[in-house]
Structures are given as structure tokens and as C-alpha cells.
Amino acid sequence: MRSQTAIFSKLVRDFMRQAPLVLGQSSPVSEAVEAMRAARVSSVVVADAQGMIVGIVTEQDINHRVAFQVPPDTPLANVMTAPVMSISSNDYLFRAIARMRRYNLKHMPVVDENGHPQGMIDLHDAMAVSNEKMMGQIDQLTHRGTIEGLKKVKQAQVDLARDLLDDNLPASEVQSLLTHVNNLIYHRVIEACLSDMEAEGLGTPPVKFAAIVFGSGGRGENYLFPDQDNGFILEDYPDKDHTRIDGFFMELADRMTRELDSVGLPLCKGYCMAINPLWRKTISQWITQIDLWGRKHNFVAIRLSDIFFDFQSVYGDINLAIELRNQVAKMISANHFYLSAMFSEIADHNVALGFFGGFITDDEAQEFKGQINLKHTGTLPMVEAIRLLSLREEITEAATLSRIKALHLKGILDDTERETLDAAFELLTGILLDKQIMDFKEGRKVGYHVDPETLSKRQQKRLTEALKTIDALRKRVRSEFTADIF
After folding, report:
1. Cα–Cα distance for residue pair 242/182, rounded to 1 Å
2. CA distances from 310 to 353, 396, 459, 482 (A)
3. Whether CATH 3.30.460.10 fits 143-281
4. Mutual angle of helices 457-482 and 380-392, in 10-degree steps
5. What is the DSSP letter of 224?
6. Phi then psi for 179, rounded to 5 degrees?
7. What DSSP string runs through 49-66?
8. Partners of 375 in beta bridges
9. How do 280-282 and 230-234 pair as beta strands?
């Protein structure tokens, strides 16, 4: 039972109450009062003609703005609290608690992906699964404002990861939460940068845009201290406006990457960031670029597209990211020659197992002698193989376990393959996270090397089996994409 940390793995939808009362802006306050009385609830959501939330009327509003002050036929639009704060049903519960505590809200509307009211979250219900220590962790993880405050968020991640693993939360779920917090940092940094730019007279974004993250962040599989891998998708605009519009986003990218680096998300050594024009394009330019990569079939094109294929939006217009993902999935699934070329470029990314089943350890760098790079010779070969199968099948999920599930539903993976691959992924990520936390706590450099001798005999045996499972997957992928059985 994960009683001490359950709140950090729960979603808002796990705790929201039934769908809220919803009335139109022109509905009279008398109707709202009667509806609240009949349903025995303390609030009513006010929506526009498209069903989007525009305000809320609570018992407090009735007492302070309505009772004995306005006629019964007064439209709700005249007395509602607006704008109203809401939260997605797919968001984490701890974020709902933080937001309600910060703004002194007793309850908050829950919305679906389209912004339509879906339920109501009550602060009392949410806090019933928390305690004083958790409140402190929540406040640290949801810190707003200063760069120093965001640095504390990064530090708090380590302690939370340790607690979650100790409470037996699957490593993949810990990774998902770490990614979520990192994405919150992205959101707040971009928000702060845009606010500063506007205050300095540089204006607001001239077109819609989405900030996206690639790699482990795009898959929701961050470890403790991932590098920055990010980009911008911009709404299409006339070529004559390029200097002005791209200039704005170039300035935003420069500020964003510097601030992220200062709070603990290091700059990408490979320059895979929005400050590089290669990763800052309009949606049409992105589609053209992917098509060009697909036709070139050379090492550089494949390496760049390999970085790109795992991405998710962290700020802005999410529809731009969704549209681009769907377009890319269709383009790549039909390009079999390119998929084969992709495998050829990663064909030597083998697992750390020798011919007789022993571990292959690092024998080049002295500091890692006798250790296994469990990312490069463990999780990476698996992630790459699953990605290739998913691209071929036009699967749009990014997370490795979600891709495995989708491949299983399509009949590409059988029951045993899904079960053993899931288990292998959880084991390797669990070992890596545990090692990273230990290294951080003891002041060592945090990386991806693990000494197999520090593992128990049982862990060593399980690790061997997991690597055999991944090796079998790669041999299968090699056969299907290159017709080479050796």
C-alpha cells in the first residue's frame, strides 16, 4: 500500500465529484439558487454557448452579491466570479491541491481536453489523502515565481522520487511524475519570459505556437537531471513577416534556454534546442523538413529525425503538436525504406550481454571500469526498437509502455512479449533511478552507469533475463526491417 505518497500518483479524475451544475450566462440567479438547493451543492458553473466555462457562482457569491441586493431575474453573467480557475481531469491531484491552496479555493471545476466542464474537485476531498509532510512537498514542487524557487523544485524532485520508489511505485510512474514536474518548470519559465518581454516593450507572441520537448521528456521518461531537448512549432505566417516573427521567438528561445539551464535543466550539448533554427519552425516547415529527412536516408537526417520522433507539448497551442504528430505518423509509416535505414543506423546499439550470457562492462573510461551503461546498453536499445515498430504501425503514442500496449492491441506483440517487455522496462528504469538518487545523495556525479556487483544475486539474474528479452526484440526487429536473421 502506497499510503504515504499516494497523492503524487493520483489524477484529478480519481477524486472529482459528479458533473457540476452548468447554466448559461443569461440564466437568472433565481434558477441558480433553486438548482443548487435541489442538488445540495454549493456552486454552479456558468458556460457560454459553446459549453466553455466562463465563470462560477458559489454560495459565497450568493451571500455577498445576490441576497437582498439584485432582482431574482438578474443574469448570472452579472454576479459570477470570472475568469474561473479550472484544471484538467488528466492532471495530477497534487497540482489541484496546490492551486486551490494558493488561491484559497474550496472547490474548482474539472474540464476535459476541450475545456468543457466534466466534474468538480473539492479541497476537503483532495486533502483527505494528504498529511503535513505531503503539503510541504506539494508546496515545493509547485513553487511559483523566482528562479531560486524553481531550483528548489528540482531539488525536491530527488526526495520525492526516493519516497515514491520506497513506497513501491513502479519506476515508469516515477519517471512520468518527474517529467510532469520538469514540464511544469518549462511552463513557468516560458510564462515568466513572455511576461518580461511584454513588460520590456517586445510585445506578445505574434502567432500561435507550441513549445515541445523531445527524447525522454517527450516520452514522459525523464530521469533526475535530463538535458534540454526542445523546440517550437509556430503557426504558419506569410514569408514577408519572417524577420519580425522569427525574431520574437528567437529572443524567447534564448531567454527560455538560459533560465532553464540556471534552474537545473542543462543546455543540450548537441544544440537540440529552440535557439537553433533547425528546431524552431512553422508547422508547414516542420512537415517539409520531415519529408526531406525521409527522402535523404543519410546518417545526419536519420539522427535528427530520431531525436524528433518522441515529442510532447509543454506550453502553448497543443493542437499544433497534435496535428504535427498525426501528419508525421502517416508520412513515416508509409516510408518503409526509411524505416529500414533507421534500423541500420542503430543496428550496433546492442545490450550489455556477452555471447555466453555474462555482462559486458565498460573497459574504456577508468571511472566506469567494470560498470554497465544501463541507458546506452539497456533501455536505449529497447526504446529504439519499440519506436521503430510503432512508427511502422502509425502509432502516435510516445511513451514506451504506451507503445508496447498499442502494439499488443494491434497484434504485433503477443501476451508474453508484452508482459516480459513491460517487466524489463520497469526493472531497468528502477535500477537506474535508484542508482541516480543514491549518487545524488552521496555527492557523486549523476549518470547512467551501474556496477552489477552492487546488485543482489536475484537482481543480477532478473537483469540478465531483461537484457535477453530486449536482445530478442532487437533480433526480431532486425529481421522484419532488414530481412537479415543474423
Report:
1. 31
2. 27, 9, 30, 23
3. yes
4. 30
5. S
6. -65, -40
7. TTS-EEEEEEHHHIIIII
8. none
9. parallel
How far is it, in rounded angstroms, from Cα 258 to Cα 263? 9
Q: All 3 cell numbers of residue 218?
A: 517527450
Q: Which regions of the chain are under pLDDT 70? A: 1-6, 65-68, 127-137, 143-146, 297, 483-486
Helices (H), 167-275: 171-199, 215-219, 242-263
Element (H, E) at 323: helix 318-333
Dist CA 430 CA 411 (whole Å): 28
Q: Are 365 and 456 in contact, with CB atoms under 8 Å apart?
A: no
- pLDDT for 267 equals 94
Same fold yes or no, 6-127 and 340-482: no
CATH among 3.10.580.10, 3.40.220.10, 3.30.160.140, 3.40.50.2300 for 6-127 = 3.10.580.10
pLDDT digits (tens, 9 = 90+) for 104-162: 888 889 998 778 888 888 887 776 666 656 666 677 777 665 677 777 787 788 888 88
DSSP designation for 455 = S
Query: What backbone phi and psi angles, to 5 degrees, belong to 207?
Result: -140, 165
201 Rama sector, left if φ>0, alpha if ψ -120 to 50, beta otherwise: left
**Residue 79 half-sphere exposure, CB side, CA atoms within 13 Å?**
29
The β-bridge relationship of strands 449-450 and 372-373 is antiparallel
Q: Are 275 and 250 in contact (CB under 8 A)?
A: yes
Q: Can you read off the three cell numbers belonging to residue 16?
A: 472529482
Q: Which of 102, 105, 178 is nearest to 144 (CA)?
A: 102
Instruction: Say yes or no: domain 340-482 is CATH 3.40.720.
Output: no
pLDDT of residue 2: 45
Cell output for 458: 536475484
Query: What is the arrangement of strands in the sheet containing 107-111, beginning at the earlier edge strand?
Result: 87-88, 107-111, 117-122
**Cell numbers at 195, concatenated:** 511576461
Beta strands 209-214 and 230-234, pairing class: antiparallel
318-333 vs 283-296: helix axis angle to the nearest 10? Answer: 20
Longest dimension (CA), the chain: 86
CA distance 175 to 181: 10
Single pTM value for the model = 0.78
What is the torsional sign of CA 1, 118, 144, 258?
positive
Q: Is residue 93 packed enough to be buried (19+ CB in 10 Å), middle (13-18) or exposed (0-12)?
A: buried
Given the DSSP bridges, would you call strands 107-111 and 87-88 parallel, antiparallel or unpaired? Answer: parallel
Q: Where are the domains of the chain?
A: 6-127, 143-281, 340-482
Contacts 24+ apart (CB under 8 A), 60-65: 62/29, 62/32, 62/33, 62/36
Listed in sequence order, the residues at least 6 apart from 220 whose beta carbon sits closer than 8 Å to its beta carbon are: 175, 176, 179, 180, 312, 398, 399
